Q: What sequence folds into this?
């Protein structure tokens, strides 16, 4: 009986335990430590001293492999100590970790739950992995996925955060085709980055993008909510919806498959998910039930068993 533990060490630290390709247990650490959206931070207390409370659930299991998922913080000197400290707690040494597989793990998580035989996974995230240059975060991806094969069709990388803070003067907009997959590199603000920008402008804190999305529904209703804030919320919803529509249209240039999996943190947006389904009635949609980073623990373990 093959036993695999998938561990996500980014936002929403999570653990997925598989036996013979079946998910047996899934936990998120913040349910145990009561720290919402818990993430190992860049300090000694969190990296070298934190004792993972969820590990009590796994103390009697002998794993065949432990595989880690994370977003790319930009420097492996942080990821590696977190991994080693965790492994020390479970007295285990053999592990797998690829910093460039964040979007793949979103795709494989959604695929595991979907029960499609073949599908196209469309990922919209706030980054997660870097490409081309340290400052470019992958924002969108398209994958073909089946039982034993996953193929990347497209990625869109943006350095919009660096552009915003460092005042880059070069306006980068490049399309690279003809390689193993198509790649777009730009300064364009889109998806989750756009939500973060509008969230700040609306007076919300970082991490409260969900509240901004939620109040967009009140734009044309009788409410005491600030009209300017409602306009920003509605603008974010409408603009990102159009971006998602264009991304799904792009799917049709790569595949005739009508089974579409939506994953990545953006697809916590139930309102826009529903609008996508209405916009493309000819497609069969499945929304990953754990589209945020917590789900990458599931995706990593499933990927390890089926695609490595």
A:
């Amino acid at each position: 009986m093959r036993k695999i533990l998938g561990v996500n060490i980014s936002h929403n630290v999570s653990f997925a335990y598989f036996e013979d390709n079946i998910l047996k247990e899934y936990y998120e650490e913040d349910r145990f430590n009561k720290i919402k959206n818990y993430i190992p931070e860049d300090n000694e207390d969190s990296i070298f001293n934190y004792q993972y409370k969820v590990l009590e659930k796994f103390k009697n299991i002998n794993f065949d492999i432990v595989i880690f998922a994370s977003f790319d913080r930009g420097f492996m000197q942080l990821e590696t100590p977190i991994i080693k400290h965790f492994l020390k707690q479970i007295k285990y040494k053999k592990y797998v970790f690829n910093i460039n597989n964040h979007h793949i793990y979103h795709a494989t998580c959604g695929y595991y739950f979907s029960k499609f035989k073949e599908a196209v996974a469309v990922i919209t995230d706030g980054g997660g992995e870097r490409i081309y240059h340290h400052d470019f975060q992958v924002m969108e991806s398209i994958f073909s996925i089946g039982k034993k094969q996953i193929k990347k069709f497209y990625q869109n990388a943006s350095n919009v955060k660096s552009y915003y803070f460092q005042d880059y003067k070069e306006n980068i907009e490049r399309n690279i085709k003809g390689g193993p997959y198509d790649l777009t590199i730009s300064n364009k603000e889109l998806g989750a980055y756009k939500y973060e920008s509008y969230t700040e402008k609306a007076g919300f804190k970082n991490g409260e993008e969900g509240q901004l999305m939620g109040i967009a529904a009140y734009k044309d209703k009788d409410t005491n909510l600030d009209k300017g804030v409602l306009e920003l919320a509605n603008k974010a919803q409408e603009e990102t919806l159009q971006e998602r529509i264009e991304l799904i249209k792009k799917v049709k240039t790569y595949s005739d498959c009508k089974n579409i999996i939506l994953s990545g943190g953006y697809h916590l947006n139930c309102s826009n998910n529903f609008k996508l389904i209405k916009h493309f009635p000819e497609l069969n949609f499945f929304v990953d039930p754990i589209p945020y980073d917590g789900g990458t623990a599931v995706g990593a373990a499933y990927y390890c068993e089926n695609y490595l």
Observations:
- DSSP finds ten helices and 13 strands in the chain.
